[in-house]
Amino acid sequence: MPAPAAAGSAPSVRTAYVSGARLAGWAERFGAAHGGFRLHDDDGLRLLAADGTAALLQAPWPDDGRPGRGSGPLERLAALASQPRRLGLLLVRRGGYGIGVASEGVLLASKAGTRYVQSRTAAGGQSQQRFARRRSNQADALVAAVAEQAAQVFRSATFEYVVPGGDRALADLVLGDPALREYGKLPRLGYLDVPQPRAAVVRKAAADACSVRVTVTDPAG
User: Fold this and answer.
1) In this structure, how many other beta carbons lie within 10 angstroms of the beta carbon of residue 69?
2) Bridge-partner residues for 109, per DSSP?
3) What is the pTM (predicted TM-score) of this model?
4) Domains of the chain, first to last
5) pLDDT at res. 191
6) Which of 29, 109, 128, 191 is at a distance of 20 to 30 A from 57, taking alpha carbons?
């Protein structure tokens, strides 16, 4: 368990992803490290520790009429997160993309690739205008290429939710492409903040997207 924030500092906030199978053990260690906790079940499940540390636990997906079973809120949350629901991952940044279909934290199909879009420049005048047009053309090409690749991967396995990640604006553009019309209508789950989506990043995103999102806030010093 990470150490509490140093005295005199502002509250620190960090996020982790915990699978349903590991959630009970994580909560036990959290309580041991912070003097025990009490539960509040409001916007997600909150663990309020004796030392002022708080943890917000959010399910990877809504229950959609399939709630988790258990004798308490932690058990029910763990059971919900352990359900074998299928997700379509669409991760994109200026330098590349990663696409996958995942269930129970494991990729059933995936593809990752690179694609270049130039960074912004501070130059002005006609050079700036030419650069802007070139950058726009590169971004359009990236969106079209990723949408085409995503359509191929997504057709390989059915799924019920879409998980976008990387550059929010680019991900939205890709999901709005005509090639992904049917997938753009699916419910979208929480956005994943990921680095350049290489193959290893896509594998980690698959595990994270199927896990409980834990946001821990340390008390101010």
Assistant:
1) 10
2) 101
3) 0.84
4) 13-83+211-217 (no CATH), 86-209 (3.30.420.60)
5) 95
6) 109
